Amino acid sequence: MTDPKPDLSSKDPDWWRQAVVYQVYPRSFADADGDGLGDLKGVTERLGHLAALGVDALWLSPFYPSELADGGYDVADYRDVDPRLGTLDDFDALAAEAHRLGLKVIVDLVPNHTSHRHPWFREALAAGPGSDARDRYVFRDGRGAAGELPPTDWQSVFGGSAWRRVPDGQWYLHLFTPEQPDLNWDREEVRDDFRTTLRFWSDRGVDGFRVDVAHALTKELGEPLRDLGGPGSSHESALLTLPPGTHPFYDRDEVHAIYRDWRTVFDTYTPPRMAVAEAWVPGARRALYARPDELGQAFNFEYLQAGWDATELRAVITESLETARAAGASATWVLSNHDVVRHASRLMLPPGTDPGAWLLSDGREPPVDLAAGLRRARAATLLMLALPGSSYLYQGEELGLPEVADLPREALQDPVWEQTGRTSKGRDGCRVPLPWTPEGPSYGFGAGGAWLPQPAWFGRYAVAAQDGAEGSTLELYRAALKLRRKLLQGESLTWAPDAPDGVLHFARTDGWRCVANLSATDVRLPTGEVLLSSAPVADGRLGPDTAVWLA
Q1: Catalytic site residue from 90, 182, 212, 403
Q2: Is residue 43 within 8 Å of residue 26, measured between CB atoms?
Q3: Is 267 designated active site?
Q4: What are the residue boundaries of the Glycosyl hydrolase family 13 catalytic domain, all occurrences included (predicted)?
Q5: How much is the pTM?
């Protein structure tokens, strides 16, 4: 192994505990070579935008070699860059420029599965049943008289069976697309290879890792494999009904030994590398992944999934802070990411609305008031940024972008569309390439077009259209992040005992407060100096869907 490159990041080992992290989906962020696909040079050229925004770190979604069967989460080589996105030299230049600007760099790691184009899987197919190469994955004989039935009733997250048959008659497990075969984490060779990957990127100056599907690595693979109860059974319901840690392939107790081992790798660096788990499990179980001797932090999806309701949000915030504190971690907050409907649209959907059905209607049933959605999204942002812990922002939310819900069917590229029999449009609507300028063939995304069609109204949300514009969402984010750096102390809050119905009111260390009115009527503001507001405040009254920070 080559000597580690100089550590250009801050020496503060706890920088991540209350950081603001900006998620970059590289294929949709900026296109430097004009081929319609975002790339690493494009990210590097636009890092000034992130520095000016005031975030602490950027998280790069996968940029590894991939056929894009699942938007880059089907990885063919964990220690290289997809040629369409650049080279390792381009990555090094990106990391160096980010560090020069004071930004940390977090990369996505996808340890549950590889691409079917990964050399290991190609070797497994060639080697045949019972081979050592095939044991790196989860291959099994089928059921039925001739092995024609899948080994179990396990279902793919994207629809259909989680098993795919190969020409020699065996079946392999894929919890996501068939192009994403699951690895066998019982194999020490698999574990050792990922240790090598952790060191490879850490040695290149990476400050941390976002761990994809962190709860699914270990599986109960002893024979006979255990069914979940039929094709209609959901993984989520099984997680709630089975004893904790005993699901056949989700959130098994054994997974934590892997992350304790990873922590020994992280701690060999100065400062230690951070990590955050994507673990779709109940809060008490999620906290286990965030323990100091494991990954240290885990995404809080209860907050993302909560409705625009003061009672519900207060309960989620309180529980999230308590579970993080019990684990010795800091809480995490997120409103949007590459997998969900953007919150400027989602928060306006009536309670009980199925976002998938709404997307199938091209965003017409029910219709969403864009102006009202933006007002609510701005308030939600000020509320989130005032909470103790780390905030994760998704590219474009600082522009107030709503979901592009009416993408034409022929343009869809998310595998969910085909794998569900064209009954779910998937996640492309939040992945449409960003608008940087009000005009141009791709609104400044690149010299050519964009890999997903951008709507005609995109230009008015562009960075250049909002830069320096008083009251713009971009300037609100900049002001909030600048002020947050000055105000943020401690990792606790105190709820005000006299908040009106529909209002969230809490104090942070040193006495600054956040008041968010989630009700449908004006409320009187508490006494104090208004430091920042998501919408104009007049006559001491806080309007609906508005949040303020008070001194």
Answers
A1: 212
A2: yes
A3: no
A4: 23-431
A5: 0.95
